[in-house]
Structures are given as structure tokens and as C-alpha cells.
Amino acid sequence: MTRVVVDRERCMSSGICEMEAPEVFELDDDGVLQVRQPADVSQVATAVRACPTGALALVD
Ligand code: SF4
């Protein structure tokens, strides 16, 4: 099953993915990105592309 993963070394907590798909991505109070796996990964394709640091990826 395809899942969305975040490279925490690359994530700079910009919040762009959260703006694109708030039901999937949420920055917690410490600026750490929390990810809820979506039922359909096509929901997050735009957010994955929009990440300015390339921290997001879809993997099988
Ligand atoms: S868009 Fe990228 S850098 Fe910004 S919070 Fe999301 S994963 Fe982190």
C-alpha cells in the first residue's frame, strides 16, 4: 500500500503541506509534522510536490 513519508532531516516546518492537505498533515506545538495516512494518496500529491525541501515522498 502506498504511504506518505516525511524525511525529518529535511522538514523545516514551513506548514505548506498542512495548508494543502490539513486532514493529513499537522504541525504540532513543537513544530513537528504529524502525518495521518490518507485513504487515497492522490489527496496528498499536490502537497508532496509543494514541499519546498523535498521532505515528502510517496512510497510503496
Ligand atoms: S511542506 Fe515540507 S518542509 Fe514544510 S512542513 Fe511540510 S514536509 Fe515540512
Strand and helix map with partners:
Elements: E1 3-6, H1 16-20, E2 25-27, E3 33-35, H2 45-50, E4 56-59
Antiparallel strand pairs: 1-4, 2-3
Bound molecules: iron/sulfur cluster.
Iron/sulfur cluster binds at residues 6, 11-17, 25, 33, 51-53, 55-56.
Describe the fold and architecture.
- The chain is of the alpha+beta class and 60 residues long.
- It has a single domain, classed as Alpha-Beta Plaits (2-Layer Sandwich).
- 18% of the residues lie in helices and 23% in strands.
- The protein has two helices and four strands.
- The chain has helices at 16-20, 45-50, and strands spanning 3-6, 25-27, 33-35, 56-59.
- It has a two-stranded antiparallel ribbon with strand order 1-4.
- β2 and β3 form a beta hairpin.
- It binds iron/sulfur cluster (SF4).
Structure annotation, total helices: 2
Whole-angstrom Rg: 10 Å
The CATH class:
Alpha Beta
What number of structural domains do the residues give? Answer: 1
> Percent of residues in helical segments?
10-25%
Keywords:
two-stranded antiparallel ribbon; 60 residues; 23% strand; globular; alpha+beta; binds iron/sulfur cluster; Alpha-Beta Plaits
Entry summary:
The chain is built from 2 helices and 4 strands. By secondary structure, the chain is α+β, with helices and mostly antiparallel strands. The protein has a two-stranded antiparallel sheet.
